[in-house]
């Protein structure tokens, strides 16, 4: 019974994450990237507060922060503040069908950073995975013209790759976190909000936003940053086969591309599919060989 629930939670999380690239592009029609971070973070914080209250853990929030205030400040500044500002800006500059697969290479970035910061050994299969993954990145970024190395938006590509560094850094720091995962993520949103709000006010006035924009950003806050994280954590807690649940994430980018083509009419360049297949092959090599990145199985890619 637990395995059935784990599979259900895992599939629900993957399907919801598959929709967020489309939701990002729709929401960016109404908000700037920093405004989007603010609004989505507020929604996420409210949702996670409700979940923590329902789980009977909310009273531990203040104590958890007081034990390591500087640590949670650093985590919050990396994710959600810096990570989502960079990621949303990348989505603003690039087609979502490019930004999403580029960001999906974060797990390969994590392998390299774990070797540098955690002293983990990189084996031959990891180097092969990295080579495949980053060649896939080049194929996507250049639309298949890998010899010319010309990018439609070099800044957008750089930001998409920077988002993988920030995400990997966040999860490396998160290996030191012994607190409840829901409380840890909630604290990240709470400590980051003053910074994101200040930056949004400094960047300019907020426009009058119709209800469609608020609905879209609420969807992002709930299903990119908030509820879906809890579904994924529950799936991993219930299962006796973590690899099987973790492998579900490989479905996500392909569903995402289908939704982008269907809902917002983005043209999916053939090189995007080729590059994505290379990235996924690299990730499968890591999974098949039993590579376990630090705490990586506790999260996902976009």
Characterization of this structure:
The chain has 302 residues and is mostly helical. The chain has helices at 2-27, 33-54, 61-67, 69-93, 96-103, 106-117, 124-141, 154-174, 181-203, 211-238, 242-246, 252-263, 270-288. Helix 1 packs parallel to helix 12 (252-263). The longest helix is centred in the C-terminal third of the chain and has 28 residues, at 211-238. It starts with a helix and ends in a 14-residue tail after the last helix. Residues 291-299 have low confidence and may be disordered.
Helical segment tally? 13
Proportion of strand residues? under 5%
- Give the SSE string: HHHHHHHHHHHHH
Please report the total strand number as a whole number: 0
Mean pLDDT: 86
**Radius of gyration, taken over Cα atoms and rounded to an integer in Å:** 19 Å
Keywords: Cell membrane, Membrane, Transmembrane, Transmembrane helix
Main location: membrane
Protein name: EamA family transporter
Subcellular location: Cell membrane
């Amino acid at each position: 019974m637990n395995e059935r629930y784990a599979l259900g939670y895992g599939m629900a999380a993957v399907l919801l994450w598959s929709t967020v690239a489309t939701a990002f592009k729709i929401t960016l029609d109404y908000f700037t990237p920093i405004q989007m971070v603010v609004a989505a973070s507020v929604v996420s914080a409210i949702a996670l507060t409700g979940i923590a209250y329902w789980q009977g853990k909310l009273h531990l929030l203040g104590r958890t922060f007081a034990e390591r205030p500087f640590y949670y400040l650093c985590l919050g500044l990396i994710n959600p503040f810096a990570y989502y500002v960079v990621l949303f800006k990348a989505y603003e500059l690039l087609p979502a069908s490019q930004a999403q697969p580029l960001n999906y290479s974060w797990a390969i970035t994590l392998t390299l950073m774990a070797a540098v910061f955690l002293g983990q050994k990189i084996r031959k299969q990891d180097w092969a995975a990295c080579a495949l993954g980053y060649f896939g990145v080049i194929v996507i970024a250049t639309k298949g013209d890998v010899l010319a190395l010309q990018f439609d938006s070099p800044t957008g590509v750089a930001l998409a790759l920077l988002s993988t560094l920030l995400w990997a850094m966040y999860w490396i720091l998160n290996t030191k976190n012994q607190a409840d995962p829901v409380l840890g993520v909630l604290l990240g949103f709470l400590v980051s909000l003053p910074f994101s709000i200040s930056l949004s006010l400094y960047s300019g006035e907020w426009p009058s936003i119709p209800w469609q924009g608020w609905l879209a950003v609420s969807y992002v806050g709930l299903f990119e940053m908030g509820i879906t994280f809890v579904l994924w954590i529950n799936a991993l807690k219930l299962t006796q086969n973590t690899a099987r649940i973790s492998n579900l994430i490989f479905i996500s980018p392909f569903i995402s591309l289908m939704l982008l083509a269907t809902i917002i009419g983005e043209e999916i360049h053939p090189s995007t599919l080729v590059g994505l297949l290379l990235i996924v092959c690299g990730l499968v090599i890591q999974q098949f060989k039993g590579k376990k990145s630090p705490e990586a199985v506790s999260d996902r890619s976009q």
